[in-house]
Amino acid sequence: MRAPHFWSAGLDPQSREAAPLTRLLLTPFSMLYLWGLRRKLARAVPDSAPVPVVCIGNLTTGGAGKTPVTEAIRNRITARGLRAASLSRGHGGKERGPLKVDAGAHTYRDVGDEPLLLAATGEAWIGRDRPEAARAIAAAGADVIVMDDGHQNPSLKKDLTFIVIDAGAPFGNGQVLPQGPLREKVPEGLARADAVVLMGEGPVPREVTASGLPVLRARLAPAEAPPLGPLVAFAGIGRPQKFFDSLAEAGGHLSDAVPFGDHHPYAKGDIQFLRSLARDHGARLVTTTKDHVRLPPEVRQEIHAWPVTAVFEDTAALDAVLAPLFKS
Q1: More exposed terminus of the chain, fewer Cβ within 10 Å: N or C?
Q2: Is 63 annotated as a binding residue?
Q3: 70 pLDDT band (50/70/90 cuts)?
Q4: 61 carries a ligand binding annotation
Q5: Is 121 annotated as a binding residue?
Q6: pLDDT, tens only, 236-280
Q7: DSSP per residue, 60-73
Q8: Rounded Cα distance, 124 and 198, in Å
Q9: In this predicted structure, what is the pLDDT of residue 328?
Q10: Which CATH number fits domain 53-219+311-326: 3.10.450, 3.30.1370, 3.40.220, 3.40.50?
Q11: Checking phi first, is residue 130 left (phi over 0); if not, alpha (psi -120 to 50) or beta?
Q12: Are the C-beta atoms of 326 and 80 separated by less than 8 Å?
């Protein structure tokens, strides 16, 4: 699904682009959604896991960079001597879990695309029931669970919570679903957090400053140079333009760029269209690693997966937030 254009920031609220009538009609649904979330959070009695749980959440739908941050924090904890495993819901996969993801045996149709990426660089699990999955992960020997998403899910007690915010597009039009991209009101979401990870270039949002939370700056950095020659890029992630911009900034020669909806399942027709576009430009196809695992296996070799990783500007500041995990 692609985000509606009227969710974008900076639009004149009364302009046609901002769809004022549509937003007005959606007001009752946003109010109902917010009421339901507040009620769920207020009434919940979270289960405690046998080991510490670090939640990597956000306040908007998709595109902030949670999964790369989850990977970076999990790997940072592991590098400091604790066994850390990631936990994802497994969005888009048929398996309910608890299940340890095997990147060589499972497909995105089994476990979802993001857990597959996390399994490529470390220990990754999925589980629709977060408390049940946490118990299974602890029983398997993990010292720390790093949960990809789940800030609005109160079923499992979190020991530390990082909120990931895209500095270039923090909160869209500032409205709650379905009027806008927010999963909850910003001050309410920040009040349950321990730190903010601000991804990319941009000022610290005033709501974050007002919260008094530590702000960690991070960015998505290429793990390798872009392929040489003309490129046709495509992506089905929260904000495809971020991928296209990163590719160009790293020196990639983009002849064309094709956005798809987040978690888009690539069908035969999509591949035929992309191949035709590449032929027209005399170019090579390139996509994200997240998209690459959703491609039909028989076409993956002809399409380049360009990897990026989350890099923290100040690892000492990150370690300071993670310090409670290492107290004996």
Answers
A1: C
A2: yes
A3: very high
A4: yes
A5: no
A6: 998 899 899 999 999 999 999 999 988 899 999 999 999 999 999
A7: BSS-S-HHHHHHHH
A8: 24
A9: 56
A10: 3.40.50
A11: alpha
A12: yes
